[in-house]
Amino acid sequence: MDIHERRGDASPLPLVRFRVSPALATLALTMAFLPMVLGHGGHDASKIPEGQTVSLDPIDTTLWVHIFVQMLAFGILFPLGMVLGIIKSRWHVPLQAVSTALALLGYALGHLHRGRQFNPKNVHAKAATPLFFLMVGQVVVGIYLKLHLEKGFHGRIRPVFRLLHSINGKAFPVYAWVQMVFGGITALGFCQGDHLGQCLAHFIMGGAFIAYAVLLTILLLVGQLWLRRTGRSQEFFDSAVIAAWGCVNTFTEHRWGTEWVKNDWQHTTMGIIWWSAGLVGVWLSRGRDGLPKRNFIPGFVILITGWAMSAHPQELMISAMTHKMFGYTLMGAGLARIIEVSFVLKDKPGVSEDGTQYNSFQFIPVFLLYAAGFLFMGATEEQMSLVAGSGMDHVAYIMILYSLASLLFLFTLALIHVYDRAAPIAQKPLVNGHARVGDEAQLRDASEFELDGLVSDDEDEERAARRKLLKDDGPEEDGLASPSTVGRNSDRVA
């Protein structure tokens, strides 16, 4: 609040101007929607046929707007705001305020739609309430941190709030992903009854492949130096996760006490090969000298998993073709990963010592993992029946899933680019306190190109003479350790 007084008047009148911060406005808007959250409901369950979870009505315009607004807020703006918060950008607070306002609008539209009705106890509705309160908590903690209260009691609790704000903010893309998946299966009435088990397997495993691809993208572009500081190779972490996941699959893929079927055998033995090969990868991730060592095991596990999934028995032809393409994609990712480690990098941690360079081939296994994740998430029994009844063939459906993988890959690259632009530029390596000869020559050439046309003819001749002198002395500069070179350089300076 700014207060100014008019001078020269017997009774000065204050002029008051109020400024409302985006964070406070967002908090007020959030509190206004709180009664709607506490009174969640409003779905007309009488229209839902017995034994079903959704009505036969089409999705109306209001619900479509709800879907797109929430995808914009949670799928795009909140992750972008998270990155802006990590780099401490001044646009972090305004963008998160806009994202929260859109999320609240979408939340309201989810209760005001008509057309298709849903079971009030659906998983999407159940997950919406805790997500709403996490968003409220994030806004409240963000406003508290923005006040910069650092004395006394506030100084002791501020680090805790900063940690909570950081963890919750970084987890929001994961919340958003899970809630959007819940929204999709709720809108179509999927994953109910006997379909729940295979539905969970497809979405969890497919989401895991996508998460792995996102982590590989981050490590490739901005995480190489961090990985070296851990003192572990990338295959150590990959193999450890593979082994842990294999232990879970070994004892959960078959319902113990029932008869074994083909899929049970395949899933259980796949879990066994995961934990056994994963343990080998952990062992090979450290060399004889105790230093981190690359190995082929994660790529091999991905490859053999793809081979197994390509031969997975299916009832529908379109399902068999989709699973086969999923298997081929995984096999390609695993083979490309082995080639990358063994032949492109030749067991080195990265292409360059400073961790800023990469080879274009390294993107192949990463992109194929994105595609494999979407293919597996899109191959549930109910989805395959829906696609088969729509008249779409497997080729068109697979192209759509590859397109979704491309868009998510692009969005991940864009977020990493925003983060990378704010990171400090690495300094050029020095030799004896001076820039290397090659780097110095590049800088000199760039400087001369920029000054071209801005200097006189005399300066051009003088610059040409200097370049000729440096060129004549070039071979001698390459041998800085040679005594004869040092002597000639000293003579020239004298």
Please give a structural write-up.
By secondary structure, the protein is mainly alpha-helical. The chain folds into two domains: 21-46 and 53-189; 194-422, no CATH class. 69% of the residues lie in helices and 2% in strands. The chain has a two-stranded antiparallel ribbon with strand order 1-2. Mean pLDDT is 82; it is low at 1-11, 427-457 and 474-494. Residues 176-419 form the Protein YTP1-like C-terminal domain. This is Integral membrane protein.
List keywords for this structure.
globular; disordered C terminus; two-stranded antiparallel ribbon; 2% strand; 494 residues; disordered N terminus; two-stranded antiparallel sheet; single chain; 2 domains; mainly alpha
User: What is the H/E string?
Assistant: EEHHHHHHHHHHHHHHEEHHHH
Radius of gyration: 30 Å
Strand order of the largest sheet: 1-2
Count of separate DSSP helical elements: 18
Number-wise, the strands total 4
Instruction: Label the structural class.
Output: mainly alpha
In short:
Helices cover 69% and strands 2% of the residues. The chain has 18 helices and four strands.
Layout: helices, strands, pairs:
Blueprint: E1 2-5, E2 14-17, H1 22-38, H2 61-86, H3 92-112, H4 123-146, H5 153-188, H6 196-222, H7 224-229, H8 234-252, H9 262-284, H10 297-310, H11 317-344, H12 363-377, H13 381-390, H14 394-422, E3 430-431, E4 434-435, H15 437-451, H16 457-472, H17 474-478, H18 483-493
Antiparallel strand pairs: 1-2, 3-4
